Amino acid sequence: MTNLQSLDLFWPELIITVVILTALIVDLCIEKSKSDVVGWVLVIGLLITAIAIWNQDKTTTTLFTDMIVLDPFATFFKLLIILSTLLVAVVSWQNNELDEYRKGEYFTLLGILVLGLFLMASSIDLIMVYISIEVVSIMSFILAGYLKLDTRSNEAGLKYVVYGAFSSGIMLFGLSILFGLTGSTNYFIIQKSLAGLDGSASAALVMALLMILAGFGYKISAVPFHFWTPDVYEGAPTTITAYLSVAPKAAGFAIIIRFFHQVFADGGALADAESLSMTDVPWPEIIGILAVATMTLGNLVAIQQESIKRMLAYSSVAHAGYMMLALPVLSIQTVYAIMVYLVMYLFMNLGAFFVVITVKNKTGGETFDDYRGLGWEMPFIGVVMTLFMLSLTGLPPTAGFIGKFYIFSALISGGSQYYWLAIVGGINSVISLYYYFHVVKVMFLEGERKETLVQPPEVMSGVLLATAIPVFLFGIYWNPVVNWVQNSLIFYVQTM
Amino acid sequence: MADYTFWLIAAITVISAAFVVLNNQLVYSAVALLFTLFGVAGLYVFLWADFIAGVQLLVYVGGILVLIIFGIMLTNRISSVRISHKSVQQGVGGAVIIWLFIFLSIVILKTPWLNQTAMEPASSVAQVGKLLLMKYLLPFEVISVLLLGALIGAATLSREDP
Amino acid sequence: MYRDFGTVLVAVILGIVMVAIPLLIQKLIAPSKKSKDKLQTYECGEEAEGSAWLQFNIRFYVIALIFLIFDVEIVFLFPWAVVFKELGLLALIEMGIFLIILIAGLAYVWVKADLDWVKRNVRYGTGRYQDVRMEKTT
């Protein structure tokens, strides 16, 4: 569609842009102590955006002369992103770490981050891919280093910048190789040209693939591009940590699925059971190995952590590995499984980080020592945290079990060459049991009981309930999620 | 003539880049970076990207280099410590670099790159302008939001009061 | 294109040569007697005090950063100006949106007093020139 026609279908993003500018201007007019108001601007703006997305035409088309697409797949990720942003924005008011700072910029930057994530989920042009990833990265750098007076936050910001700049530079090199081979930045034209290349180009393709994976892998923190994850997650404000572990990861998976299934494979055939790899580049094998490495390293290192926040950082690396497991199998079931997993992961991971925030507000720490006997002192927190830990391990009847179930069954239905991936995934789930249950053990079996019960503030309890109820409910009745995902599994495909 | 000039500029770029990396004095490295960035601008001219060459001079030589030197001068222990930077893990790094060089050379030489025969254009600025305002309009507008975010972030982080 | 840039190249080479030749001449014919006084930092006959390696004020950095952002903006204005006549009103609107978003950024740094050398205490919602206490930055 041309630029002018596209505007009609571009309302959600336009609304967000207006929200960003409004938030900025509101921030200029108010005192520091009242800067929470900007958060209201963001929350209300996001709600309006969600309504706009919901009421959008269910057509599939490209917008802005083939820069981005509008399809149910993108819409699914947009709603996921809005949901996580809303939860994080509400918790940000409660987060004591941010008390000394103006929150106006914080919420404004969060709004820009949402815009970048939207574009990430829907871009089909290499230039758009790069710019949307840059928007997300740069806003994440700033937000990770937002606690200026805290040296660990400074470290987080700096480390993130160095890794981010390096990996996006490498990715750009890879994208330029792809452009040099095909002469186009559009996914569909690239895919068509790649299918016509002979074997002499495969070295260049492998190179391009590895370099592009460096950029994408960095966004979902896959091994060996994960080195920034623990330090950034530990140093950043906990609300931002929670956000980074969910929303950019979801958008990263959206971009990976779109890229590999529409550039390196025949995206059109995704609706059928099998879609064949178009080139002789062994990308499914490469991703399979990376997935195993990601998950194993994440789990093994998570065991040794003293700080719960850091443990959850490594656990989020491991979860990226579980989701990557499904990528090598080129079938509709695997994409479906990843999307189901992302929904479940959103609730359980955000919930776990929100518990960390609540506990830190109360005790001021985030190590295992601070959780000693907490289950008896704050029974609500104890029960909710146990639920999240169960779910992150993947035990029934929780949402995490359903997510893992779909991933593993998609793997097994992919054929016998993928069994080993499923087996490694199973072993890893068992390993993760150890450290997730360590938290539960510390909370309930260690430390002395205190007589007085402590209740978290109402807003915090509400948000925790809003994440805990889905984690429990989707463990026994997951049809709504599955239906939603099923209806969203429509890609825009260009036929030429 | 153009050939010799190309090799001269390429040599300046590579040698000064090596100087940036290998020199121990931070300030000398920053000054050597000036020549690298200049050389890269020259290489852009050989790619017929005159607009990008101008941008390279305006933004990198005129802006980012100044920022880097300010960055060095902002270091709070600048007077007491000899400002230097050393490379660590040279063995591993060297191995990776050599492997990367060989592999990239093979890729560059063996691959059937898409070659287009074209006339030497008078100037690419008008083409860039048209592409920006028509085909790549959305990225262009998104860049303004990106710059806004970068501006807010930079100002927030470098301001003294929290 | 090469012709145009050939001129630039010639200018660069001429510039280097014009500086190099006088330096070379003075190297050849001037007597060289080094002494401690000659090697000192020149301060109009005063004795130099301390080192020239001073820590800069952070304000330099903030201003340079803001400059850089608007530098990039100018880069985008340039190709727009070249094709503006051809594309007309549409180009004006497109660039208008681009500029409005960035001007919001300018308003931001202005109100937050990041552009001021001597930092004001920012008072929100009162207006810039109202009675604000001046405070020196450290």
What does this structure look like?
The complex is a heterotrimer of chains A (496), B (162) and C (138). Chain A starts with a helix and ends in an 8-residue tail after the last helix. Chain A is mainly α and 496 residues long. The radius of gyration of chain A is 22 Å and the shape is globular. Helices cover 72% and strands 1% of the residues of chain A. Chain A has helices at 3-6, 11-29, 36-54, 72-94, 104-122, 126-144, 151-182, 187-195, 202-219, 228-235, 238-262, 283-303, 308-325, 332-363, 374-377, 379-393, 399-413, 419-445, 458-476, 479-488; strands at residues 61-63, 68-70. In chain A, a hairpin with a 4-residue loop joins strand 1 (61-63) and strand 2. Chain A has one domain (3-488). A two-stranded antiparallel sheet of chain A has the order 1-2. Chain B folds into two domains: 1-86, Up-down Bundle (Four Helix Bundle (Hemerythrin (Met), subunit A)), CATH 1.20.120.1200; 121-162, no CATH class. In chain B, 73% of the residues lie in helices and 0% in strands. In chain B, helix 1 (2-22) packs antiparallel against helix 2 (26-46). The longest helix of chain B is centred in the middle third of the chain and has 25 residues, at 50-74. Chain C has one domain (2-111): Up-down Bundle (Methane Monooxygenase Hydroxylase, Chain G, domain 1). Chain C has helices at 2-29, 58-87, 89-111. Chains in contact: A-B, A-C, B-C. The interface between B and C is large, with 52 and 52 residues.
